[in-house]
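Hey, quick one: can you model this chain's 3D structure?
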Amino acid sequence: MANYSFPDDSPLPGFSLPLRFEYIASTGSAANGAANLLYGPGSKAWSITLTPTYQYKIFFARAEFSHVGTSSTTPGLVFGRDGMNTTQTRAILEAGILF
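Sure thing. Here's the predicted structure for all 99 residues.
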């Protein structure tokens, strides 16, 4: 995880740009009876996420953009209507109060 916060004297005070990379993998195979912990036994996944955030006093707003990729998956257990897509892009918006 890395985060850049714009200083108060910049043109964008209150803004920050967190960036996160994650990787996870499971071991085993369906043939040897391994449990399905991700997208099928022995599957792997990674993601990269950017979360631009604005904070003013106790108020905040942020967007999150994430891309997930997988490998060594079991057909039917991944993304999409038929479970065959090995990547997915996600986006959300969030606002709130810190207390």
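One thing worth noting: The chain has a mean pLDDT of 94.
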